[in-house]
């Protein structure tokens, strides 16, 4: 399989133009973009888009002085495309996703990839979806200053520790601070509008850092946050255990992430639980919008029915293609959707917050052009994701969109895996 471009998704998933994928693991989020993603071809061939803007990598040269380095000690970086016109003083920051590393062995492996070292990062990446520079593909944010902050720490920009024996630097919190300081020095301090976003592990980071982001700006600046596919649930898996809680516990412990977790959560809950956005979202003071698939494919594959939780492979076909799920398996997944809706019930009551939870088998819908904004993009009622986010951000409409249960939504771009 020929790989063209790389952005983020958990599970080392390789998409092809026929919409199928190969899954080579579940712990590291790693979407290798081919034409199907860059140009917006969805699982059923949705839409054809113009070639995306390619944006170069900028290393943060002053980061090493504060210890803000990737797992292997290299400099962190980001990709930036400057805004213009009405968007010249508006800033969109997107935090890259890419799973987590929860053991020394995993992190040593990770530091030899672009998820742990800038030495392996692409020199250019495509800006599509919410990062697109075309009004017809990204109507509300196309002419903003748009930034993709690369992810190379393995703890959702949250760790602050190191392991000298393994030569590992767990400096996610410092990378976050260094990136924001560098961008502030390049004009972000004068922003009249700012949006912090992120997908998957980057969606977790968005929730963790949302109020910190707000505190960087003047009181007159409109600041909001958008978490895409970041609502990871502390759910019981098909074996009756909690696979994801165990992994998050190891991440928090190994990387010293407890130091960076919001006190509003850690003063009442165990730090591991405070790595789950479901326990954080209600206390985030800054307006926050959640985009999430009710049947999140990564959570199904790596949390609910991982190979460890399903050693006999009873869920193997179901996790690859929802059409192969038996009735009892769909009942289990409907229970997961109910848990997600319960988790956002308090959050949704605040008028400042927004929701778009569609009943799709998907993961990360703001980065792909076909799911973000296209003629056939997913919708709830008469609103798609891009329009819903824009209406919420600009206070045009109060958005609390929750889809009816599967299989009612025919607009989904469901992911199917090989």
Report on this structure.
The protein has 418 residues and is an alpha/beta fold. The protein has a single domain, classed as Rossmann fold, CATH 3.40.50. Helices cover 25% and strands 18% of the residues. The protein has 12 helices and 18 strands. Strand 10 and strand 11 form a beta hairpin. The two termini are 13 Å apart.
In short:
This is Pectin acetylesterase. It is globular and about 55 Å long.
Features:
418 residues, alpha/beta, Rossmann fold, two-stranded antiparallel sheet, globular, disordered N terminus
Please outline the helices and strands:
Blueprint: E1 5-6, E2 13-15, E3 21-23, E4 32-33, H1 35-38, E5 53-59, E6 77-81, E7 90-95, H2 104-110, E8 124-127, E9 145-149, E10 161-163, E11 168-170, H3 172-185, E12 193-199, H4 201-215, E13 222-228, H5 243-255, H6 263-266, E14 288-293, H7 297-304, H8 316-320, H9 327-343, H10 345-348, E15 354-358, H11 369-372, E16 379-380, E17 383-384, H12 385-393, E18 400-402
GO molecular function, one term: pectin acetylesterase activity
Pfam families: PAE
Subcellular location: Secreted, Cell wall
Q: Supply Rg.
A: 19 Å
Describe the largest sheet: 10 strands, mixed
Total discrete domains: 1
Number of helices: 12
CATH class: Alpha Beta
Distance between the termini: 13 Å
CATH topology: Rossmann fold
Which series of helices and strands comes N to C? EEEEHEEEHEEEEHEHEHHEHHHHEHEEHE
Look at the structure and give the mean pLDDT: 90
| Share of helix, binned | 10-25%
Number of strands: 18
As a percent range, the share of strand residues is 15-25%
- What is the overall shape? globular
The low-confidence parts are: 1-47
Structural category is alpha/beta
Lateral arrangement of strands in the main beta sheet: 8-5-6-9-7-12-13-14-15-18
Q: Any guess at the CATH architecture?
A: 3-Layer(aba) Sandwich
């Amino acid at each position: 399989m020929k790989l063209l471009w790389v952005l983020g998704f958990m599970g080392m998933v390789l998409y092809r133009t026929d919409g199928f994928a190969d899954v080579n693991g579940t712990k590291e989020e790693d979407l290798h973009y081919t034409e199907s993603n860059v140009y917006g071809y969805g699982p059923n061939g949705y839409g054809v888009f113009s070639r995306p803007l390619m944006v170069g990598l900028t290393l943060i040269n002053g980061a090493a002085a504060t210890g803000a380095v990737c797992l292997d000690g290299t400099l962190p970086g980001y990709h930036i495309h400057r805004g213009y016109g009405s968007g010249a003083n508006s800033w969109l920051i997107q935090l890259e996703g890419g799973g987590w590393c929860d053991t020394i062995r995993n992190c040593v492996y990770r530091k030899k990839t672009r998820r742990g070292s800038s030495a392996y990062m692409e020199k250019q990446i495509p800006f599509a979806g919410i990062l697109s520079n075309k009004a017809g593909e990204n109507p509300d944010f196309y002419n903003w200053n748009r930034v993709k902050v690369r992810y190379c720490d393995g703890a959702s920009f949250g760790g602050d520790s190191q392991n000298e024996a393994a030569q590992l630097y767990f400096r996610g919190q410092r990378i976050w601070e260094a990136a924001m300081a560098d961008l502030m020095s390049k004009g972000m301090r004068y922003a009249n509008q700012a949006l912090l976003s992120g997908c998957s592990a980057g969606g977790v980071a968005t929730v963790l850092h949302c109020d910190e982001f707000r505190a960087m700006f003047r009181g007159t600046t409109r600041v909001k946050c958008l978490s895409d596919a970041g609502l990871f649930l502390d759910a019981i898996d098909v074996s009756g255990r909690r696979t994801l809680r165990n992994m998050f516990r190891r991440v928090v412990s190994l990387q010293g992430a407890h130091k960076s977790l919001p006190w509003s959560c850690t003063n009442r809950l165990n730090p591991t639980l405070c790595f789950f956005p479901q326990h954080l979202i209600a206390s985030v003071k800054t307006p926050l919008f959640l985009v999430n698939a009710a049947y999140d494919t990564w959570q199904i594959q790596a949390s609910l029915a991982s190979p460890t939780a399903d050693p006999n492979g009873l869920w193997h076909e179901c996790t690859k293609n929802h059409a192969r799920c038996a009735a009892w398996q769909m009942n289990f997944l409907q229970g997961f959707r109910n848990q997600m809706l319960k988790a956002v019930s308090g959050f949704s009551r605040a008028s400042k917050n927004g929701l778009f939870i569609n009943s799709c088998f998907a993961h990360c819908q703001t980065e792909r052009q076909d799911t973000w904004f296209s003629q056939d993009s997913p919708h709830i009622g008469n609103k798609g994701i891009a329009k819903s986010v824009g209406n919420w951000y600009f206070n045009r409409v109060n958005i609390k969109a929750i889809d009816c249960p599967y299989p009612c939504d025919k607009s989904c771009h469901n992911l199917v895996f090989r």
